[in-house]
């Protein structure tokens, strides 16, 4: 019975994906996550199934970590599915979207229950590639964003693929259990960092994220920023044998990268004008802190277990809140009861920045305990940063227009998602239900207060940030990279560029090209200097 | 049992006789021709089923017929040949159905189907050849049988393409012939022996063997479209879609690749070839071809040309897998023989459908074609994903095994980069098509659209073949580890070779 | 002094050579045919010389037989050539 | 019953007289004769296979004075091939010559040709060879002149004078041989043969005469015109048989009779000439504008292959290797016989239907004359040497033998020849498959096409698959 449920977790959404091509309803899109949710709660831990004749022989099982991921991912998929089924506007209300939505869900669930690397890789690939269809929209920018996303995802897949080859040829087995013993070569480790780092938007690999989140339908953004993004973290947890001494250097590296990500994300988030873009960059920042924590776990094998446990709670909390925020944003743009939704969003924001008695604070306390205050600076930094971003976000939300005719048909959203969101709200607040969330810590309060003050200071500059240089728009530096055209002999007869559809902006999008003229305005320079200084400053605490 | 050992002969006849009969038919007798075709194809399928059973239980299936001193015509069925025979038989059945639909009321159908059957006969003979002499014979016969198919349309373009095709393949054939004769004069009759017949004869002069290997590989490389011998392949695109499908997936290109496998494993023996330092050469050639083909494919706007270059690249995976010593790589290379065939034939079916139904020949005309022809485009998408190597489509399995084999043989440092590059490039030239087909709105009217009759987007005979092969490509990927799957069979082959 | 036989033989060969040269040089039909006959005569002469077996011995019959046949053949060939030539001329006149 | 040998010569001789006496039934007589000869040759071949070579002293006279007829594997197989070609060509001719007057002129000469070929293949001494050569030449010339136009007549005259020259040179050689050995019987010569000056001069003369008749490069200049301008069945016989029998005599003399008297250098010279013939002939065939001209030039090339064998065979030690090579030579000769005759017959059909045989204007032939095109393709396959034709096996053996005898330099020649041959064959096919309407409606000209098809099938399939018998036959079926 348990085995059956376990199999149904990835199998059901796949079947539904097929079905939804012909007949789509709220049932087809929400049945799978419901079953996943039920099985996540009901299946006894460490249930295992092995299907030797499937693929190259698959092993699935559900351990504690998997259960956690499955629980929260399924929850988000469920609600998002509800939203999608209620949506009547074009890109979402098509069989293609529903099918790809469910395929991505399949991939996500599959990689959660995977006990062998190939299943994981399969899930990861399915998820990543079908997400392309969730991002793409008729508009010029959206298409380009989707292309960029696809490019990065493919690179990630290939990095992962070769990492797999290295590891498997080393261990001779595709099971994760055999992994713990072996020594992961530096090359393999680098590939893993690259492969999952793209999903986790490590600084330098993050360009796709703000581009796609700020243009994709908000429902897609919700599942992207929540379940899918966290899959990268799960990947690290699964593939990288924590607690082994020989990865300390890599731990350090991740620590640095993560911290950079935190700062970069924060800075850019504060420069965004669209609420979704703010959320996107805050995701970059949050993922930065998580990567840093994972790096810390690697750097100190001694208490890797504890840190990772705490990290999981933290991640789950962020997963839930961030997705709920996106969904809320969606509601906010579509409902008449904007005030109520705004309040909801505010509550979520507070939970995210770890107000006492919230899941956020619980996670933070756990982390502080696990890291034994070695990262206190970084954590406090993130607390302040989060505060800034959330305030900025709320401010931006206020200025968000209701859905205009050109984007959706401005229909009042159905009651089902509406109810679901309000149900989700308290869960998001309390998640991940850690007992410690009762505890009350003054430190975070202080930090939050500091953050608020700082925000008030910054607001004065906001006027200067009206016209932003191109490298501060969503997808910052990528706009500069994209300028580097591949002038190669290989061109179409109808002379289009070499990779016309994959990475570079399409030729006809003249307006796009014009708008992204590089203009070094004073705030631009100013912004650059500040970033550089802060990043430099960051190295001091780490190497003390 | 005597009758049973005649099985290979019957398999040949099952397509040869219908073919000859079809030549005699009048143009009008459509029903009879179709009947003959299908009868032959199905009969062959049944016989092949029997053959699989026989080989699996290691029955001796061999026929010998002497043509002169040292020249023996040998038909012999071993695991490798069964793999190829099965592939060509199954795909022949599908392609025949497709061709019947495709050539609906066009002239010279008797001629076409006659040569079509001959072509498959030659391919099967190639697969069942028991020694180098027989192999060469069928190799040349294949060239002859395909020439009229390429030239079928009779347009100046077609005739020119066919001429180029012929020039390349026959020149290659002559080199192959010389190499084979040379080998036979120094080593006696060259039967295909698992583990390699030459590896037993250490007394031979290694330098002669190296030169002979070069001759053989060049001769086979022309058909296998190894760079720089690939020039004919894009030219042969003028052929009708079913022919291109057969050429690229089953008959010609695959024959070359199959020959390379034969020469390396059953003539030289892979360890022996490696010890002569020949595999490095082969591997280099294959890698260059893989990358070059993909790069060229990027810049093709004509759909069939793009597919042609992708064939150039994909087929060399087989050579690459062959060039790496070690069972895993062998499995990868051999199984790709099947996987590439199934996926590529799907792509060409789809391309043919686009051209037939909408007159779409260029990638730039394909915006939004997915809405007009969902079935075909679905098949195309699956196959394209497989080509890129995205699980669970079959292509992933081959790449996985080749990669593992490379690691096992310590060749990972150059093989894996090649694999990655080509995957990335494949994505770069396939995904834009998929994207245009599904996500881009239809911009201009189709060049020449046929009105839809019936409930499908096009005649069923054209729609089902790609769907069938596409689902086949998916299934052999998803059930790769299931018994009697290509992968399992390839494993059997590898276990018998080492 | 050289024997009669040898003399005949040499004469025969000489004739043959002369005829050969003439055949190769002349383009028109008639001279060519004539020189061919000279050629033939040379060969026959040689044969007859070969047949000679000393003053008092009977000559070897075989070469004579050969020569007779040869002459017949040559004559018929000549006749045919002339006939062809006439036919060609007629065609030209038409 | 050794008289079979006599019958093979006697029947056609008788028949040719009958046809003169009784012209209205000429074709029936001729066809029956051809079939009878075919039957006889089959029986003879079987006898040789069963009981080895056969010698028959005509009229009981001992050889030396009398005329000895001999048949062994070599001549038997050639005879068989010749009779097959001749019978097929006879049926073809029966349909080809619509004009009864033509028929009346054709059949007697045709039968004389048969007589000449048979007696040449069977005669066992040099002088008979001379006579039969002349007979052959004369009847061939007459047949060439049958297509009654300037080109044909001029070609015929040229052919005749060259033929006369050749046979006279040959005769001179005969004289020297007789002077040297006192006998002309090949079997006795084979025992006596010694490498002295006289023999060499004689051999040189004999060979020179034969080379002229065999049109070996550079003495090939007369051949294309003659073969191209004769009527189709005649060209078939000329290219397939008449030229080949001179080669037959040459090979007999060099390999069987005077083998001990030979120096390898001489054979090497022949080989080189043969190689040049291959290249030059193929090249000219590629440039030829007319189908029949192309076929004629390809004959030049194909004969070149036969000469390539000589140096190789001589260099090989007597025994298995040598027999293999010799069998290949024979196989090549036979296949070429069938293929070339089929090609000429096919070309004849096209010329009749289209009114011309210009290669460039053949468009649409494949549609209008499917079977004829098929015939030409089959014949071409055999000429190029693609499997499953006998030529393929022969070339395989040739390459193998040249590697065995360390004469690898023949290989590029063979390769080049093959590729050129492919080029000129598929040039024709390419035009034939191309668009155009050289022939109006779809025609099936069974009475001409079926004989041609039979020959083509023999060349490209039957001989290829059944060639093993040849080697069996020559291993134990040779006199010398």
In short:
The complex is a heterotetramer of chains A (544), B (498), C (94) and D (480). Chain B is built from 21 helices and two strands. By secondary structure, chain B is mainly α.
Please outline the helices and strands:
The complex is a heterotetramer of chains A (544), B (498), C (94) and D (480).
Chain A: H1 2-22, H2 26-42, E1 47-51, E2 58-62, H3 64-86, H4 95-113, H5 117-135, H6 140-171, H7 176-179, H8 186-199, H9 208-215, H10 218-239, H11 248-271, H12 275-299, H13 304-334, H14 338-352, H15 359-371, H16 376-398, H17 415-430, H18 442-462, H19 478-481, H20 510-515, H21 522-542
Antiparallel strand pairs in A: 1-2
Helix pairs in contact in A: 1-2, 1-4, 2-3, 2-4, 3-4, 3-10, 3-13, 3-17, 4-5, 4-10, 5-6, 5-10, 6-8, 6-9, 8-10, 9-10, 9-12, 10-12, 10-13, 11-12, 11-16, 11-21, 12-13, 12-16, 13-14, 13-15, 13-17, 14-16, 14-17, 16-18
Chain C: H1 4-25, H2 29-51, H3 61-93
Helix pairs in contact in C: 1-2, 2-3
Chain D: H1 3-21, H2 26-51, E1 54-57, E2 68-71, H3 73-96, H4 100-122, H5 126-144, H6 150-181, H7 186-192, H8 197-214, H9 223-229, H10 232-257, H11 264-287, H12 291-315, H13 320-354, H14 365-368, H15 370-384, H16 390-404, H17 410-433, H18 446-465, H19 468-476
Antiparallel strand pairs in D: 1-2
Helix pairs in contact in D: 1-2, 1-4, 2-3, 2-4, 3-4, 3-10, 3-13, 3-18, 4-5, 4-10, 5-6, 5-10, 6-8, 6-9, 8-10, 9-10, 9-12, 10-12, 10-13, 11-12, 11-17, 12-13, 12-17, 13-15, 13-16, 13-18, 13-19, 15-17, 15-18, 16-18
Descriptive overview:
The complex is a heterotetramer of chains A (544), B (498), C (94) and D (480). A two-stranded antiparallel ribbon of chain A has the order 1-2. Chain A has helices spanning 2-22, 26-42, 64-86, 95-113, 117-135, 140-171, 176-179, 186-199, 208-215, 218-239, 248-271, 275-299, 304-334, 338-352, 359-371, 376-398, 415-430, 442-462, 478-481, 510-515, 522-542; strands spanning 47-51, 58-62. Chain A starts with a helix and ends with a helix. In chain A, helix 3 runs parallel beside helix 13. By secondary structure, chain A is an all-alpha fold. The model of chain A is unreliable at 405-411, 485-528 and 534-544 (pLDDT under 50). The radius of gyration of chain A is 22 Å and the shape is globular. Chain A is built from 21 helices and 2 strands. Helices cover 73% and strands 3% of the residues of chain B. Chain B is built from 21 helices and 2 strands. Chain B has a two-stranded antiparallel ribbon. In chain B, strand 1 and strand 2 (71-76) form a beta hairpin. In chain B, helix 8 (206-224) packs antiparallel against helix 11 and helix 18 (394-408) runs parallel beside helix 20. The longest helix of chain B has 32 residues, at 156-187. Chain C is mainly α. Chain C has one domain: Helix Hairpins (Orthogonal Bundle), CATH 1.10.287. Chain D has a domain at 263-480. Chain D contains 19 helices and 2 strands. Chain D has helices at residues 3-21, 26-51, 73-96, 100-122, 126-144, 150-181, 186-192, 197-214, 223-229, 232-257, 264-287, 291-315, 320-354, 365-368, 370-384, 390-404, 410-433, 446-465, 468-476; strands spanning 54-57, 68-71. A two-stranded antiparallel ribbon of chain D has the order 1-2. The longest helix of chain D has 35 residues, at 320-354. The model of chain D has no long low-confidence stretch (mean pLDDT 89). Chains in contact: A-B, B-D, C-D. The interface between A and B is large, with 41 and 41 residues.
């Amino acid at each position: 019975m348990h085995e059956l449920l376990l199999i149904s977790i990835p199998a059901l959404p796949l079947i539904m994906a097929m079905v939804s091509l012909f007949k789509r309803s709220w049932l087809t899109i929400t049945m799978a996550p419901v079953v996943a949710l039920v099985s996540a709660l009901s299946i006894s831990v460490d249930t295992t199934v092995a299907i030797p004749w499937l693929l190259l022989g698959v092993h699935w099982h559900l351990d504690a970590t998997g259960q956690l991921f499955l629980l929260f991912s399924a929850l988000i998929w469920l609600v998002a599915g509800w939203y999608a089924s209620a949506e009547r506007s074009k890109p979402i209300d098509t069989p293609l979207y529903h099918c790809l939505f469910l395929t991505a869900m399949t991939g996500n669930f599959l990689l959660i229950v995977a006990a062998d690397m190939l299943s994981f890789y399969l899930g990861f690939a399915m998820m990543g590639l079908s997400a392309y269809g969730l991002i793409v929209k008729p508009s010029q920018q959206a298409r380009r964003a989707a292309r960029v996303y696809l490019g990065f995802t493919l690179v990630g897949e290939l990095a992962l693929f070769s990492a797999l080859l290295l590891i498997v040829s080393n261990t001779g087995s595709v099971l994760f259990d055999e992994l713990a013993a072996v020594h992961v070569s530096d090359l393999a480790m680098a590939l893993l960092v690259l492969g999952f780092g793209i999903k986790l938007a490590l600084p330098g690999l993050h360009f796709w994220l703000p581009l796609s989140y700020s243009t994709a339908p908000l429902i897609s953004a919700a599942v992207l920023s929540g379940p899918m993004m966290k899959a990268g973290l799960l990947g690290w947890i699964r593939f990288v044998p924590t607690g082994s001494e020989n990865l300390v250097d890599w731990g350090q590296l991740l620590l640095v990268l993560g911290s950079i990500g935190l700062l970069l994300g924060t800075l850019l988030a504060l420069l965004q004008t669209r609420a979704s873009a703010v959320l996107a960059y805050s995701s970059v920042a949050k993922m930065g802190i998580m990567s840093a924590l994972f790096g810390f776990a690697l750097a100190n094998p001694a208490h890797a277990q504890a840190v990772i446990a705490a990290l999981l709670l933290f991640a789950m909390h962020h997963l839930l809140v961030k997705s709920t925020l996106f969904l809320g944003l969606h509601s906010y743009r579509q409902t008449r009861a904007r005030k109520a939704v705004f309040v909801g969003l505010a509550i979520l924001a507070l939970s995210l920045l770890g107000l006492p008695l919230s899941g956020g604070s619980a996670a933070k306390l756990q982390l502080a305990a696990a890291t034994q205050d070695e990262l206190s600076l970084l954590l406090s930094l993130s607390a302040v940063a989060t505060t800034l971003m959330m305030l900025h976000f709320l401010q931006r939300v206020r200025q968000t227009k209701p859905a205009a005719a050109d984007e959706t048909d401005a229909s009042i959203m159905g009651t089902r998602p509406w109810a679901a969101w309000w149900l989700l709200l308290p869960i998001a607040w309390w998640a991940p239900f850690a007992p410690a969330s009762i505890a009350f810590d003054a430190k975070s309060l202080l930090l939050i207060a500091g953050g608020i003050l700082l925000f008030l200071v910054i607001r004065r500059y906001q006027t200067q940030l009206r016209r932003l240089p191109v490298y501060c728009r969503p997808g910052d530096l990528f706009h500069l990279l994209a300028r580097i055209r591949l002038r190669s002999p290989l061109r179409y007869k109808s002379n289009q560029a070499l990779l016309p559809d994959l990475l570079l902006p399409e030729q006809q999008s003249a307006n796009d090209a014009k708008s992204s003229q590089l203009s070094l305005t004073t705030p631009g320079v100013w912004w650059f200097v500040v970033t550089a200084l802060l990043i430099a400053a960051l190295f001091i605490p780490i190497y003390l | 049992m005597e009758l049973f050992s005649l099985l290979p002969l019957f398999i040949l006849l099952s397509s040869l006789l219908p073919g000859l009969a079809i030549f005699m038919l009048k143009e009008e007798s459509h029903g009879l021709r179709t009947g003959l075709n299908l009868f032959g194809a199905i009969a062959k399928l049944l016989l092949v089923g029997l053959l699989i059973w026989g080989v699996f239980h290691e029955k001796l299936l061999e026929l010998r017929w002497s043509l002169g001193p040292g020249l023996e015509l040998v038909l012999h069925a071993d695991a490798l040949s069964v793999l190829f025979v099965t592939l060509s038989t199954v795909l022949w059945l599908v392609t025949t159905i497709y061709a019947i639909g495709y050539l609906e009321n066009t002239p010279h159908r008797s001629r076409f189907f006659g040569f079509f059957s001959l072509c498959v006969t030659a391919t099967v003979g190639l697969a069942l050849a028991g020694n180098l002499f027989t192999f060469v014979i069928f190799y040349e016969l294949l060239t002859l049988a395909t020439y009229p198919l390429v030239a079928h349309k009779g347009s100046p373009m077609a005739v020119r393409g066919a001429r180029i095709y012929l020039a390349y393949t026959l020149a290659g054939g002559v080199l192959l012939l010389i190499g084979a004769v040379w080998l036979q004069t120094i080593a006696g009759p060259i039967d295909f022996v698992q583990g390699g017949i030459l590896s037993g004869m250490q007394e031979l002069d290694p330098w002669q063997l190296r030169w002979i290997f070069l001759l053989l590989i060049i001769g086979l490389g022309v058909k296998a479209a190894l760079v720089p011998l690939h020039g004919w392949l894009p030219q042969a695109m003028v052929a009708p879609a079913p022919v291109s499908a057969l050429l690229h997936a089953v008959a010609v290109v695959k024959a070359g690749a199959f020959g390379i496998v034969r020469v390396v494993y059953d003539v030289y023996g892979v360890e022996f070839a490696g010890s002569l330092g020949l595999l490095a050469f082969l591997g280099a050639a294959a890698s260059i071809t893989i990358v070059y083909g993909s790069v060229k494919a990027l810049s093709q706007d004509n759909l069939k040309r793009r597919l042609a270059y992708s064939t150039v690249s994909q087929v060399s995976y087989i050579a690459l897998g062959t060039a790496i010593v070690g069972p895993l790589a062998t499995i990868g290379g051999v199984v790709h023989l099947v996987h590439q065939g199934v996926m590529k034939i799907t792509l060409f079916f789809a391309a043919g459908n686009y051209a037939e139904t909408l007159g779409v020949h260029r990638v730039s005309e394909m915006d939004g074609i997915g809405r007009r022809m969902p079935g075909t485009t679905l098949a195309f998408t699956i196959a394209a994903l497989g080509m890129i190597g995205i699980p669970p489509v079959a292509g992933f399995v081959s790449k996985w095994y080749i990669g593992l084999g490379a690691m096992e043989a310590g060749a990972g440092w150059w093989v894996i980069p090649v694999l990655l590059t080509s995957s990335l490039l494949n994505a770069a030239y396939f995904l834009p098509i998929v994207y245009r087909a599904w996500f881009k709105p239809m911009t201009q009217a189709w060049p020449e659209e046929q009105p839809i009759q019936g409930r499908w987007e096009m005649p069923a005979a054209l729609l089902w073949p790609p769907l069938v092969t596409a689902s086949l490509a998916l299934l052999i990927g998803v059930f790769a580890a299931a018994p009697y799957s290509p992968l399992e069979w390839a494993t059997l082959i590898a276990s018998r070779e080492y | 002094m050289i024997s009669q036989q040898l003399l005949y033989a040499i004469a025969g060969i000489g004739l043959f050579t002369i005829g050969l040269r003439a055949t190769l040089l002349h383009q028109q039909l008639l001279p060519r045919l004539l020189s061919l006959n000279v050629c033939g005569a040379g060969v026959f002469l040689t044969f007859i010389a070969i047949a000679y077996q000393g003053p008092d011995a009977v000559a070897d019959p075989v070469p004579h037989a050969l020569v007779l046949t040869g002459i017949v053949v040559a004559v018929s060939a000549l006749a045919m050539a002339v006939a062809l030539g006439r036919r060609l001329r007629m065609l030209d006149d038409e | 019953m050794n008289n079979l040998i006599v019958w093979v010569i006697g029947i056609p001789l008788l028949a040719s007289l009958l046809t003169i006496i009784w012209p209205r039934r000429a074709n029936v007589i001729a066809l029956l004769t051809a079939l009878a000869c075919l039957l006889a040759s089959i029986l003879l071949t079987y006898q040789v296979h069963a009981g080895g070579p056969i010698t028959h002293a005509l009229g009981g006279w001992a050889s030396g004075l009398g005329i000895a007829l001999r048949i062994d594997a070599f001549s038997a197989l050639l005879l068989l091939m010749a009779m097959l070609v001749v019978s097929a060509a006879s049926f073809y001719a029966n349909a080809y010559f619509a004009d009864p007057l033509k028929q009346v002129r054709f059949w007697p000469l045709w039968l004389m040709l048969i007589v000449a070929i048979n007696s040449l293949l069977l005669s066992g001494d040099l002088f008979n060879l001379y006579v039969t050569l002349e007979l052959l030449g004369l009847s061939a010339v007459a047949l060439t002149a049958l297509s009654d136009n300037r080109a044909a007549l001029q070609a015929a005259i040229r052919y005749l004078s060259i033929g006369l020259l050749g046979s006279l040179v040959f005769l001179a050689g005969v004289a020297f041989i007789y002077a040297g050995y006192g006998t002309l019987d090949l079997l006795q010569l084979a025992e006596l043969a010694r490498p002295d000056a006289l023999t060499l001069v004689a051999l040189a003369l004999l060979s020179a005469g034969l080379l002229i008749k065999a049109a070996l490069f550079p003495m090939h200049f007369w051949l294309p015109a003659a073969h191209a301008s004769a009527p189709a069945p005649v060209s078939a016989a000329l290219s397939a048989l008449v030229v080949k029998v001179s080669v037959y005599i040459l090979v007999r003399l060099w390999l069987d009779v005077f083998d001990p008297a030979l120096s390898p250098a001489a054979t090497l010279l022949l080989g080189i000439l043969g190689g040049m013939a291959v290249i030059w002939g193929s090249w000219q065939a590629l440039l030829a504008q007319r189908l029949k001209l192309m076929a004629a030039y390809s004959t030049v090339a194909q004969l070149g292959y036969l000469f390539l064998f000589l140096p190789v065979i001589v260099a090989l030690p007597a025994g298995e290797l040598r027999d293999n090579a010799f069998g290949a030579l024979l196989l090549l000769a036979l296949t070429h016989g069938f293929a070339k005759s089929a090609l000429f017959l096919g070309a004849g059909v096209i010329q009749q239907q289209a009114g011309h045989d210009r290669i460039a204007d053949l468009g649409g032939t494949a549609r209008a004359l499917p079977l004829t095109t098929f015939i030409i393709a089959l014949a071409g396959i055999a000429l190029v040497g693609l499997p499953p034709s006998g030529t393929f096996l022969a070339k395989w053996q040739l390459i193998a033998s040249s590697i065995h005898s360390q004469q690898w330099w023949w290989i590029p020649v063979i390769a080049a020849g093959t590729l050129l041959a492919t080029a000129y064959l598929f040039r024709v096919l390419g035009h034939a498959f191309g668009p155009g309407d050289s022939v109006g409606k779809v025609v099936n000209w069974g009475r001409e096409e079926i004989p041609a098809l039979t020959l083509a099938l023999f060349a490209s399939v039957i001989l290829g698959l059944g060639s093993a018998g040849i080697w069996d036959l020559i291993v134990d079926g040779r006199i010398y």
